[in-house]
């Protein structure tokens, strides 16, 4: 009887268990959805974590996780909680953006003199009604408070991009500027931004920024903020680096979306937009975030876009965001490196790189000016190389996307001050690194593209100084040989003959005899290493011993 009574209760017990399991499963999924996920594949040099906390201190690499490819938090679109405003231009408050009064000397400058300037400076300009370039700060027509700050900073004359960029920006025109790092482009948009802001109504409580500068990384945001703060001292302009209540906001795309979603700021008053290093932001997958942000800004804004290259993706962005714009190119659009950099390419095997690096640093550290940045391809490589070099007592520090902001700031400060003159970094972590006295760049790992190579070595030879770039190039990099040769030839550098052999090789490795002159090898270990490589590749090798030459199939 008791047994029968117990059996009657089984269905109800099972039903209760199913309900309990369902509740626990729901709670578990909710917990998992909000739990910070971290992928273990660190070799891809990207962090795949996210956070629902808008104050979470992430760098751009975390910034782009599940965002760059169309994601945001979870699997929705970036900024999915932001409503797209329905702009009615007839109801928007009017604002001033054409603030340029040409200097009489500039207005009356003969066209042939302008053409000579363009030819001498290797500058090309496209667009309608292009303002004449200015040749001095006085000709730019800046207010007295700007000229006083220029004099305080000791600047002598405008750079090429500033000569043409300032008249365009002050005229309220949209502009695309193609210029390399170190060309002075930051001042090209910051000084006109200050003038623009001072011609707008004062900000009220709750208003967002008037000028917005979007950059790819936190380090670059900090560098731009320094320039903005130094330039705006005499004009009472406040800038903030977002990584309310300010006139200029400098931010990475993902971080700004966090602030917009949490309603810590808004872009209702923004009338001056700058996209700095647009090509890099697109490379890092920020296009969805950029488009979401631009939707929040009134369409009659002034937009300035700056880029080091002019690929199709950047062109499409310009066509979508800019109106009747003027394009300014400094130099040829063909990929080229700074001609003040001595480029040395060491074609070697992968296992040789560490010893070669050690020998190279011994020579570099004997120099008085020895500040050196070493590029590695992945975060793991940065960590491993940094630890090995620390054990060997090298004055070294490293940065990458998994480092906290405090760790990165500390490392960069130690590097800038020269306390630790060797910095190991990934490509992305080094973006925005503005240190004028870097004398040497070492590519421990060759990058995936020639564009990245040019940007890496551009960390040295800033402000018309000279520098040296060493690169370890292995057979694994054979596919990049052609692009590298083009960069070297354009800069009139000596091209290592082994690069041509790698370029001709479609197999991804080069002939062992071409890689190393066997007849010149006397070290037994070197011969053994070569034979081991040859055996791995199922190649024939000719070993020289005395006057006899015998064929080996080892």
Automatic annotation (TrEMBL):
EC number: 3.6.4.13
Short motif Q motif, span: 135-163
InterPro entries (UniProt xref): DEAD/DEAH_box_helicase_dom, Helicase_ATP-bd, Helicase_C-like, P-loop_NTPase, RNA-helicase_DEAD-box_CS, RNA_helicase_DEAD_Q_motif
Sequence ranges of Gly residues compositional bias: 67-77
MF annotations from Gene Ontology: ATP binding; hydrolase activity; nucleic acid binding; RNA helicase activity
Basic and acidic residues bias: start-end ranges: 40-66
Pfam families: DEAD, Helicase_C
Disordered as annotated region, ranges: 40-79
Keyword vocabulary terms for this entry: ATP-binding, Helicase, Hydrolase, Nucleotide-binding
Keyword Nucleotide-binding: yes
Domain Helicase C-terminal as annotated: residue spans: 356-503
Domain Helicase ATP-binding: 166-328
CDD domains, alphabetized: SF2_C_DEAD (cd18787)
Catalytic activity line of the entry: ATP + H2O = ADP + phosphate + H(+)
Family, similarity comment: Belongs to the DEAD box helicase family.
Name of the molecule in the record: RNA helicase
